[in-house]
Write a structure and sequence with these properties.
Elements (H helix, E strand, L loop, with lengths): L3 H10 L21 E10 L2 E13 L2 E10 L3 H4 L2 E12 L2 E13 L3 E10 L2 E7 L11 H4 L5 H9 L13 E5 L3 E17 L3 E17 L3 H4 L7 E9 L7 E12 L2 E11 L8
Antiparallel strand pairs: 1-2, 1-13, 2-3, 3-4, 4-5, 5-6, 6-7, 8-9, 9-10, 10-11, 11-12, 12-13
């Protein structure tokens, strides 16, 4: 279970979430144009064990993103963890150009890890505390080229930067997280109707997601000789003022079936500014 759940988090949340009984956006004012706030409940066998939230802002040709993760409930008795991540960069044609990524991981009271990645015209440089041997599983400059950090990958998907009529969920998100280089590949399956309470009712794009390791440290599941499980997601186009393409591509639900059961991430909160009405 603990190997499978971070798979969903890495794919679309950059490994970050927040576990609270109420939404972190419940008391916030409506966001201004160019912002999005979303939250998800993460569950295994239908039992919630954490929440994730994401806040993004687009302005003046740039973007910032912040996300949080923390376990909750019974799982916290065995695996108490939290992650805070952030990123910033510029919007470029058909991609994003990150400038910095920062991730802070805490497990219990004994283990703390921080990874920063600085992007510039010379490539990407990693700063880790505590440090680790980056030469053991190297990622070349060529492999880092055109890759984005995990938070920018989330933003790439949400902003629909690589989505089109034939590929409504996008095509691929190339990621470098400071330790490893991998691709998240998207394959459109079909459109289907979805009803998600008061949050959304309408058509959704069912897509299959595939993790493909390129270089660097291998995730635990690959080290153990297993393959990543098939991951599916339902995405909806949400019109919003200030969105780079006039709408966001929001994951309503993600799920992966593993040997122990099914891990899910389901949308619990959605905040976007309403699109401008035509007079």
């Amino acid at each position: 279970m603990l190997c499978a759940s971070p798979v969903l988090l890495v794919l679309l949340f950059g490994g970050a979430a927040l576990a609270q009984a109420t939404s972190p956006f419940a008391s916030s004012p409506a966001p201004p144009a160019g912002t999005i706030g979303i939250a998800y409940s993460i569950a295994f066998w239908g039992i919630s064990f954490g929440q994730t939230d994401y806040e993004g802002k687009f302005a003046d040709g740039g973007y910032t993103a912040n996300s949080r993760f923390e376990t909750s409930g019974l799982v916290s008795l065995f695996w108490q963890a939290s992650i805070n991540a952030s990123a910033a960069g510029h919007i470029a044609p058909q991609t994003l150009a990150p400038t910095q990524y920062d991730s802070y991981f805490r497990r219990g009271n004994a283990k703390n890890e921080r990874v920063r990645v600085i992007f510039d015209q010379n490539g990407a440089e990693t700063f880790a505390d505590p440090p680790y041997d980056m030469t053991k599983y190297p990622v070349t400059a060529a492999e880092k080229r055109e890759a984005v950090d995990p938070m920018s990958a989330v933003t790439l998907v949400l902003a629909g930067i690589r989505a089109d009529h034939a590929n409504p969920c996008g095509t691929v998100a190339p990621v470098f997280d400071g330790r490893r280089r991998y691709d998240i590949e998207f394959a459109f399956v079909k459109d289907e109707p979805v009803t998600l309470g008061h949050l959304y009712t309408g058509p959704a794009h069912l897509c299959r997601l595939r993790y493909r390791q390129i270089a660097g440290f291998k995730p635990k599941i690959l080290k153990e000789g297993a393959a990543f499980p098939p991951i599916f997601a339902e995405f909806a186009d949400i019109p919003a003022a200030g969105a780079p393409n006039g709408h966001y591509v929001v994951a309503l639900k993600l799920w992966a079936r593993v040997d122990w059961g099914t891990v899910t991430a389901q949308l619990t909160e959605l905040r976007v500014p309403a699109p401008a009405t035509k007079g």
